[in-house]
Amino acid sequence: MNGHIGSLKIALLVMALALLGACLMPGTGPVQAQAPQESQSEESGVAVSGQEFPVPLVPLPKTITPCRACHGPEKDFPVQFKRHEDLLVHKNIRLAHGGVRVWCLDCHHPDNRNFLLPLSDGKPIDFEHSYLLCGKCHGTKYRDWRNGIHGKRTGSWNGEKQYFLCVSCHNPHLPKFKPLEPMPPPAKPWTPKETQAKH
Amino acid sequence: MSDSNKTTQETATIRRDKKDRATEAPACGKDSIQPDRRSFLAGAAAFLGLISVSSCSWQEFVQNHFQRMTKTEIEETVERLRAEYKGKYGKDFVVGTEAPIDGTLFGYALDIQRCIGCRRCVYACVDENNQTRNPQMQYIRVLRFKDGNMDLEESSIYYDPEEVPEKGYYYMPVQCQHCANAPCTKVCPVRATWTEPDGIVVVDYNWCIGCRYCMAACPYMGRWFNFADPVIPADQVNTQTHYLGNRPRMRNVVEKCTFCIQRVRVGKYPMCVEVCPVGARKFGNLLDPDSEISRIISTKRVFRLKEELNTQPKFYYFFA
């Protein structure tokens, strides 16, 4: 009896080992079900995770969020004005974004000036994730930006990258890219050596 | 120092040979296969003179092709170069010899709808890659076209307005296109230039004989020749270098853009990508389907310059 059980055990062990071997052999084991890979393209997580891009978080330069200077924790100006005339107090801001179709409260939160309008989830967007709001209108540019086609990236081509927010390059009130002064043209081949552009 | 030692030693050997011969004079007779003292010295003087005129050390003179060098030979060469650069610029250089990263094929894309022609890339490249400042050399040419025109011969590189972009013009920077079927590497009579496994076309400056066949073969004017001794101010020289890339060059050799091989082989973006203020320049691995460059090629309208020549550039222009 005892011997029977012993041999049974050995037989079971041998079978188990054989099965294990078969599984480990490449190509013979059962095909592993591929985990459905969520490609980081169009559909996946727009508002779900606000933290999917390595954008600069804090501190943002004051030029991007000057609202904090008056409506921030230090100085708390009231923000109950919602009419166009009331908002004209911001004389220093020239708005040339989308012509007459866009005005202040199309982006800024009516009650809390340190936030932007919410997405469909109802949570106001903070200035660090302003690209979510820009993407509401500029969908194709937003898609290109997420794929690294629009906008600048620095860092490493196969590793960590630094993204730039939309507002790092485009002033949201005057989004057109500002002209630059070009660097000097190359020296013409017939230029004498002494007068070539110094660099 | 070592040269003169060597000559005296050689002379001594000859002297001994002669003595030996003198003692064995009857056996040798008039057999004069061995050179006599005079012609040997003349030859040695000519050889040493040639080396001294060409202003290179004898180690440099006998240095092997980079691809044929053993590991120790490469180390010795790097040490020699570092000492040479230290003497010339007074700085400690890093002369890297990083090998290609497995599974990479570099590609480049440039958004010509985005480029504003500011030439920031041109000067960032000069600083990064130790190009000679006087005479001037710039790997990147920014061509300016009239809107609607794509005739290269009607483009201009000497535009100099107050501000860019100018109304009615667009800009197209051109540099080495790193062709997959590169004509420049085929014409080199000494194989001093070749395509690396990661797709970068490089030059072994020490093997280049300066014949400039590659420059004649390149349809993009992507190669440059050092007609004079390169001049780089010591405070502007970049000490992070690569043997096949931006190490200081010498007169009479050809050089070119290497996608900043010293940066991309350690994972960084090329300098022109980093500096572009409008983000028109894109760089990445063509073999990675999720890289920026692959996404651009699969989703945007791209073209390659002078595609009809079958050079198969890995440099894509696109409209986003």
Would you kindly provide a written description of the structure presented here, covering whatever features stand out?
The complex is a heterodimer of chains A (about 200) and B (about 325). In chain A, about 25% of the residues lie in helices and about 5% in strands. With about 200 residues, chain A is mainly α. Chain A has a domain of about 100 residues. In chain A, the strands form two sheets. A two-stranded antiparallel sheet of chain A has the order 1-2. A two-stranded antiparallel ribbon of chain A has the order 3-4. The longest helix of chain A is centred in the N-terminal third of the chain and has 23 residues. Chain A is flat and about 95 Å long. The termini of chain A are far apart. With about 325 residues, chain B is of the alpha+beta class. Chain B has two domains: about 55 residues; about 210 residues, Alpha-Beta Plaits (2-Layer Sandwich). Chain B has a four-stranded mixed beta sheet. The N and C termini of chain B lie far apart (about 60 Å). Chain A: This is Cytochrome c7-like domain-containing protein. Chain A: InterPro entries: Multihaem_cyt_sf (IPR036280). Chain A: Keywords: Signal.
- Order of strands, main sheet of chain B, comes to 10-2-12-11
Task: Report the total helices of chain B.
Answer: 11
Q: Report the C-alpha radius of gyration of chain A, rounded.
A: 30 Å
Largest interface: A-B, 33 and 49 residues
The percent of residues in helical segments of chain B reads 25-40%
- Total number of helical segments of chain A? 6
> Major beta sheet of chain A, specifics?
2 strands, antiparallel
Span of the ends, CA to CA of chain A? 96 Å
Class based on secondary structure composition and strand pairing of chain B: alpha+beta
Report the mean per-residue pLDDT of chain A as an integer. Answer: 71
Strand order of the largest sheet of chain A: 1-2
CATH fold-level assignment of the largest domain in chain B: Alpha-Beta Plaits
Taking the alpha carbons of the first and last residues of chain B, their distance comes to 62 Å
C-alpha geometry of chain B: elongated
Spatial extent as radius of gyration of chain B = 25 Å
Bulk shape of chain A: flat
Helix content of chain A: 25-40%
Element-by-element helix/strand order of chain A = HHHEEHHEEH
Contiguous uncertain segments of 5+ residues of chain B: 11-30
Kindly state the mean pLDDT of chain B as a whole number? 89
